[in-house]
Amino acid sequence: MTEIKKLSKHYISLFFLTIIFLMSLVTIKTFAYENKKHILIINSYHNGYKWTDDIVSGIGSILNTNSLDIESDVEYMDTLRTSGQEYTTQLLEIYKYKYSDKKLDAIICCDDTAYNFVLDHQNDIFPNIPIVFCGVNYFDSAQISGNNMITGIIENYDIEANLNLILKLHPNTKNIYVINDNTLTGQAINKRLNDIIPKYSDNLNFINLKDSKQSDILQILNNPLDNSVALFLIFFQDLAGNKFNYDESPKIMSKNSSIPIYGNWEFSLGHGIVGGMLTSGYYQGKTAAELTLRILNGEAPSNIPIVDKNTNSYMFDYLEMKRFGINQLELPSNSNIINRPFNDKKQILVLNSYDSNMKWSKDIVNGINNILDGKNYELYIDYMDTNKNYSEEYMEKIEDLLKYKYRDKKFDIIIASDNDAYNFMKKHRNKLFHSIPLVFCGLNYYSGNEIQDSNTSGVIENVDMQKTLDLALNQIPNTKHIIIINDTTATGKANKESIQSILPNFAGKVDFTFYEDMTMSEIQQKVSALNNDTIIYLLSFNRDKSNNIFSYEESAELISSKSNVPIYGAWDVNLNHGIVGGYLENGESQGKAAGEIVKRVLSGEDISKIPIIKEISNQYMFDYEQLKKFNINLNTLPKESIIINQPKSFSLNKTTLVFILILVILIAILLFILNYKNLYKLRKDKTTIKELETTASTDFLTGTFNRIAGFKELEKLVALSNKDKTCFSLCFIDLNNLKTVNDNLGHTEGDNYIKTAIKLIQKGLNNKQILFRFGGDEFIIIFPNTTYAETSKIFKTINNYFDEYNFSDNNSKYEISISYGFSEYNPNSPLNIEELINLADKEMYIFKHKYKMEKANYYR
Description:
By secondary structure, the chain is an alpha/beta fold. 42% of the residues lie in helices and 17% in strands. A 5-stranded parallel sheet has the order 2-1-3-4-5. A 5-stranded parallel sheet has the order 14-13-15-16-17. Strands 7-6-8-9 form a 4-stranded parallel sheet. The chain is globular, with a radius of gyration of 30 Å. The two termini are 51 Å apart.
């Protein structure tokens, strides 16, 4: 009994410590924006260029999934399409203006141009800021000798892996034509090749073409010796002194070659090489981000060694594989296959007013991409960043930059997102882009007289303030005062003009007070003292009196953390960040509507006859947690409302901490027993044991197949389906809200979430159906001899298991759920494995969007 009392006292103490900790978090959150880590990513090339996009994706895979609060600015120097000293000087002026006075915690520079640019101007713009480089081909340690603020990752290449690959895919090969130039870089590569050649001297004859003119190489490739394959290294200059771009020479050689050409760098992929073990941009970026995190956590750059290990992967071009009859099933596991058509694409410039990290901008771009697919349209996406930079001097620099950057580019149409981009194009389009059609979206406060250009159409952002305020007064009828929080930016001024036009409608009912030209701290102090007969209407507060910059999400969170009264809003980006809700505007719908207009214009329709869309995307949306916090009756919500953060229909069983702890332990024991039974069953299956021992095919956490084993099963099933003329289905699964569980409850609990979800899925499967881990929180199920319709029925059973679990007492912390999509393999119209997975992945994202915005959030 004494021990129980001691234990109870221990948990009571733990309870109070938890309360103190949570209160501290609330206080700390108020000042979180001051403790952010600010990262600048400078890319040598442009947004939309695969190598650059892969690097940025690799960086994001690390920086976006760690515990630090990181804000990143991304710049694209675009030096593949635009170069020259004059252009570099203009970039320097832009970056000086944007970053000279901004506190940066680290810079990531990608590829040689950005690397050299940062080194050249380190003292001018970026003094004493840690620098991490990646994608650098020609690294010279002497260049950074004595520089204690820099580290990074060097590009590397694996010639030996590609020779082994050639022998595997073309076992009769006797001759290897080596395409390499005689530049300093080419000589260095040739030296490494000569070190490797003796290993293959018994099987292969190497014919080095480094001392040849391009015309001679083309003749050799067109009439090669029997049983020959070519290995393309680099070829920027031939013996005659002719110079070639990185993509020009492989393209010309492939066109004139009667034999397959393999390569070593990903930037050659899609330009004539079959593929190979290629240096990967994604892993360059991923590794650079990992180094950056070490710096942000306090490690000195000088203590982090330069990384020179291989970060390569197998990648191939489907068109070249098809041309030379290379079977996809013979490729190494986890190979990536691309086939990006570039012919006849419509050229579209998307100019965004704000920066690439703002959710509103992301939503608009996502909406545009949803309509304008990459097969028929090529998007050039630029960000003016006017939420952080807004002076006339800056606008002049933007004009100079775009003029120089796109001086030789002919666009078919321009999309301008939000007022700043539209006003910029309205002023400069004729001079910069020769009056091509303009489609706008996100344009605020349109009265009907602003747009008189017959070569323009678009979508109006129609923020209906009247509806939100009417609803708020209906929900909280004792309201006597409404506080309007709004900044003094151009958007803020337009906000004020719009709301002032409707204030007479509330005369005698309620009075209004504007909180405008204030610091964030002043706003917080004022809202903390408001009486309960007051509500807040938050418009935009992205820049305060002290010129501190806040995202929509940050401003809503900081204000709501101090407010004891309800806050209503105008944009859905504030939802889930402290506002009750309202009649909210949606960015993705704006982008989709603009994309539809663009398709109509590029299909031949006269833009002057396409009416401006004035109402499209507003919807009643609310946060259940805020509704509950302020005791707002759900019956006051319009029927078509979307509600996020709705709880499960059953009420949580509030027990003592001791009981919860015991319950968690029992669940852990149960999961252990279930896992033990599955492992025991696997041990009984000698065939499976043999497979596991030879291929190391088990995922450690879940006990399912890992990605390598799963792809092997897919390859076998594709071959079997082609032989027997039978169909099979594939399901792509993503676990919902795993990041939230990891962030709030820790990764151990996140692992429990994954394991529990997989157990529930496995309950609905038989021993012929194969489940494997694709990566992270993504899984794939293979259904042999099963059609799309039959697979859907199976998932009804699986969904029932999830419902039973969530509505039972097994889980009192969170809901476990999944999003999923299907694809079907039909041997009469076969797809490759990558296409099959992409189709299911795309359908899964449609499901996930509905889950977040409709199905899981509707209250009727």
